[in-house]
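Appendix B: a complete holo record

For completeness, this appendix reproduces one full record from the ligand-bound portion of the collection. The bound molecule is magnesium ion. The inputs are the chain sequence and the ligand SMILES; the output is the full three-dimensional arrangement of the complex, encoded as structure tokens. No fields have been trimmed.
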Amino acid sequence: MKKIIVENLKYRYPLTNELALKGISFEVDKGEFIGIVGKNLSGKSTLCQALVGLVPHFYKGAYGGSVIVDGLEVSQSEISELSQKVGIVFQNPFTQVTGSKLTVYEEIAFGLENMGISREEMRERIDHSLKLLDIYKFKDRNPFDLSGGQMQRMAIASIIAMKPEIIVLDEPTSQLDPQGSEEVFKAIQNLSKEGMTVIMVEHKMEKIAKYSDRVMLLNHGEIVDFDIPEKIFSRGDLGDYGVTAPAFTKICKGLGIKNKITGLYPITIDEAYDLVVSYNE
Ligand SMILES: Nc1ncnc2c1ncn2[C@@H]1O[C@H](COP(=O)(O)OP(=O)(O)O)[C@@H](O)[C@H]1O
Ligand SMILES: [Mg+2]
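The structure of the chain with magnesium ion bound, as generated:
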């Protein structure tokens, strides 16, 4: 089932001359984990905002084409209705914190309070999402006493507690150390295995390669390519788009080690290892 259908999406911010999105079309199935990569200002964040309705409801400007998420035409739907289906996590968790709640627990409860769910279910959802992001131990702490990484995980937990069908994450691990990033990716992958559709913008290509089902390469507001990570990272022109392949892929490209059947380079260390071993047999 298609969870996201984008057709010829064009968008220009107010008071600017150039389109930020220049006629983008793609579809995403339920439960897919999609990575979005591309250089600065290529339109990644704008596309995220268009998927959750901030474009065109909050950012006005010129808008054309259509975005349908979980059956809702975004431009024709209320943000409140959309937010039940699709949640967004921003790069900077400070922008996402209410600033008025005294504990992490209350902060996460805030998003659930208007959803008409029972106290008991609220507690279950909050506990589950806190544990999933490994911040249950901070539940009674003041959100502003958390580190950047912990706060980011709180922001993700508060979206997850709302159980959206689709979650959009715009560089969610930029505040996190390698271990924190891995934990976030694993938690998000588990959600995608449970059927949540994931759209994630990231610069950590090792992680994008490892976790994404498909990767979208954006440049100047256009989709250059949208395919399995092996295909994307085997391209010879990634540098033109400000993207570097994962380290293992680069080493294998340098050594000419590729899968003989598919002609593609490996994207993870395990795949690279298997190929090297088979070359030496
Ligand atoms: N709030 C805004 N107002 C005007 N132009 C914007 C705004 N946000 C982004 N843009 C423009 O839209 C284009 C795409 O930017 P963005 O979506 O932020 O790219 P990315 O997330 O890939 O860095 C850029 O040309 C940028 O200058
Ligand atoms: Mg951005």
